[in-house]
């Protein structure tokens, strides 16, 4: 028997707020967290804009000494996980720590450490490279540091599937609890890649928007879209086996009802043109949850703002939902916070949970020029207040990775 899994805690660090409350207030206000890059000199770059986290101070969110041995992506993860744990009300003194695990991924790890230590090696020789360079850099250290800081001794994994990382991390945590590997999991994604090599690399790939107008840079599904805006941050949730949550009288935000994961097996950067892989991930999530497309109220799309992603994801939704595709509400949170890469799925899952909790679906901010080929309901102009019983969060990653999570309103 598969066990039921619920969401009992939320934590976020984002370009529009460094807690879930601040983030959701920003969402309700339609705030765009995009601006001039401040982390480095962009004089020689085509790209001028990014969605940076503002005002984050690690020592205010975690042990100061521990923070010094963490790169920024790990700090974001620990901060978000700490908030989620506090929000959940879970007391580790009352738990078997080997039944509490972590599934937090980062698509890249620390580009800052790579740039910094490589520069040292070239300038001063290999003997000057930081002895902690490797454990600071590698992507699994976000999950490792969360386990260390919070005392979670159970399954500790780092899913790395590029921009699908956060969604797959939550999906694998969901499965871990369903089948008895853990009772509680901290799950999500984290990323901090707004660095010279990160921006230069995505720019060389022609994946980034070259717009200098923050309001017209990240414009998913708009006919004038020309690439994504790099963001950063973390989204982490506490998932818990239902009876475990009920036994401690936990507040339950929502229930995780289904998970689908596929591969396009098509191209290293482009989604499959017919959207078949992404469509199958959505249909598998709905099959897993035992529902039909007509029951889904809302899709939080991957919606990056690149030409291919938005067109092919539209085709995927049509393939998965059939005649129901025209009536489901769709939006892209990336229109406000940019693309958080490996953290995107974590923050967008939180958006789905908050939409179910509050009955509010935010608009795709900045979508002004309709695209004849992207002809579904992308929640244009203003947000919508409505009951949300089922929501799907989609993530698509380089390499053809597709992930879909089905979230539902909790009913005892």
Notable features of this structure?
single chain; 412 residues; alpha/beta; ten-stranded mixed β-sheet; two-stranded antiparallel sheet; 13 helices; 14 strands
Structural features, described:
The protein is α/β, with parallel strands linked by helices and 412 residues long. It has 13 helices and 14 strands. The strands form 3 sheets. Strands 5-4-6-7-1-8-14-13-9-10 form a 10-stranded mixed sheet, with helices on both faces. The chain has a two-stranded antiparallel sheet with strand order 2-3. The chain has a two-stranded antiparallel ribbon with strand order 11-12. Strand 13 and strand 14 (401-408) form a beta hairpin. Helix 3 (72-88) packs across helix 6 (141-150) and helix 7 packs across helix 13.
Question: What layout of secondary structure does this protein have?
Answer:
Layout: E1 5-13, H1 20-29, E2 35-36, E3 49-50, H2 64-68, H3 72-88, E4 100-105, H4 111-124, H5 133-137, H6 141-150, E5 156-157, H7 165-178, E6 184-191, H8 196-204, E7 233-241, H9 242-247, E8 254-263, H10 276-289, E9 298-300, H11 307-321, E10 329-331, H12 334-337, H13 344-358, E11 360-361, E12 384-385, E13 390-397, E14 401-408
Parallel strand pairs: 4-5, 4-6, 9-10, 9-13
Antiparallel strand pairs: 1-7, 1-8, 2-3, 6-7, 8-14, 11-12, 13-14
Helix pairs in contact: 3-6, 7-13, 10-11
Please give the number of β-strands: 14
The major pleated sheet works out as: 10 strands, mixed
From the spread of the alpha carbons, the general shape counts as globular
Give the structural class. alpha/beta
Query: What is the residue-averaged pLDDT?
Result: 98
**Separation of termini?**
18 Å
Unreliable runs, pLDDT <50, ≥5 residues? none
Helix content: 25-40%
């Amino acid at each position: 028997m598969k066990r039921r899994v619920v969401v009992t805690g939320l934590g976020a660090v984002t370009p529009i707020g460094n807690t879930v409350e601040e983030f959701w207030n920003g969402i309700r206000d339609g705030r765009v967290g995009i601006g001039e890059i401040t982390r480095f000199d962009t004089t020689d770059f085509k790209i001028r804009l990014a969605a940076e986290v503002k005002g984050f101070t690690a020592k205010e969110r975690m042990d100061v000494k521990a923070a010094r041995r963490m790169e920024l992506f790990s700090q974001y993860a620990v901060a978000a996980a700490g908030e989620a744990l506090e929000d959940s009300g879970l007391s580790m003194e009352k738990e078997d720590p080997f039944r509490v695990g972590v599934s937090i991924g980062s698509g890249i790890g620390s580009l800052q450490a790579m740039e910094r230590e490589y520069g040292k090696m070239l300038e001063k020789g290999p003997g000057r490279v930081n002895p902690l360079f490797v454990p600071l850099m590698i992507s699994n250290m976000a999950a490792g540091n969360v386990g260390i800081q919070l005392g979670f001794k159970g399954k500790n994994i780092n899913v790395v599937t590029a921009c699908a990382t956060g969604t797959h991390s939550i999906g694998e945590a969901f499965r871990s609890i369903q089948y008895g590997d853990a009772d509680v999991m901290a799950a999500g994604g984290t990323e901090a890649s707004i660095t010279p090599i990160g921006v230069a690399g995505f720019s060389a790939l022609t994946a980034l928007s070259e717009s200098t107008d923050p309001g017209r840079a990240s414009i998913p599904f708009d006919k004038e879209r020309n690439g994504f805006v790099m963001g950063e941050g973390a989204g982490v949730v506490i998932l818990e086996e239902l009876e475990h949550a009920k036994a401690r009288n936990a507040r339950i935000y929502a229930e995780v009802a289904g998970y689908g994961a596929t591969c396009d097996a098509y191209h290293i950067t482009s989604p499959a043109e017919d959207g078949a892989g992404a469509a199958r991930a959505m249909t598998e999530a709905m099959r897993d949850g035992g529902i039909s497309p007509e029951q889904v109220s809302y899709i939080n799309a991957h919606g990056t703002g690149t030409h291919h992603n938005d067109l092919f994801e539209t085709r995927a939704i049509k393939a998965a939902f059939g005649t129901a595709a025209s009536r489901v509400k769709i939006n892209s949170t990336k229109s406000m916070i940019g693309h958080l890469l490996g953290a995107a799925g974590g923050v967008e899952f939180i958006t789905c949970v908050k939409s179910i909790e509050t009955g509010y679906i935010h608009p795709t901010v900045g979508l002004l020029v309709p695209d004849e080929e992207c002809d579904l309901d992308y929640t244009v102009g203003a947000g919508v207040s409505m009951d949300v019983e089922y929501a799907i969060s989609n993530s698509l990653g380089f390499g053809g990775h597709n992930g879909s999570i089905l979230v539902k309103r909790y009913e005892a």
